[in-house]
């Protein structure tokens, strides 16, 4: 049974018709063309599909589209403003925290959720925040450094 849902997507109110079995991941990629949200394992284990739902990092492959009614969803595409990268995106580039890039959107959104909740996290806090995001390229050190660099720059502003 097709249902209409309304929610805020990257700052814009949207309405869409969708079937109850469609996941948020499928909805974002197929209905809205937001391919920055990656399909990885499909079981909530890899974090490639991480988005923010009301400011919290969630695996979009595990969220049924009907659950986003009235919610605020932020994808990697929603972070840049006026063509300028978000601070976390800049720091990932500057710190060489991007290799193949497949995990990067999920990592950045998990980091954003952390820094929004805890503006001064420890290295251990950062490790814990990204524990659900797998990366097979970087070894995590540069990712952690990028997140901490963004945190330091935010504190200096």
Features:
5 strands; globular; Ubiquitin-like (UB roll); alpha+beta; single chain; 16% strand; 34% helix; five-stranded mixed sheet; 157 residues; 5 helices; 2 domains; DNA polymerase, domain 1
General description of the model:
By secondary structure, the protein is an alpha+beta fold. The protein folds into two domains: 76 residues, Roll (Ubiquitin-like (UB roll)), CATH 3.10.20; 70 residues, [2Fe-2S]-binding domain (DNA polymerase, domain 1). It has a five-stranded mixed β-sheet, with helices on both faces. A hairpin with a 2-residue loop joins strand 1 and strand 2. Helix 2 packs across helix 5. The longest helix has 16 residues. The protein is globular and about 50 Å long. The termini are far apart. The model has no long low-confidence stretch (mean pLDDT 96).
CATH architecture of the largest domain: Roll
Extended strand count: 5
Proportion of residues in β-strands: 15-25%
Overall pLDDT metric: 96
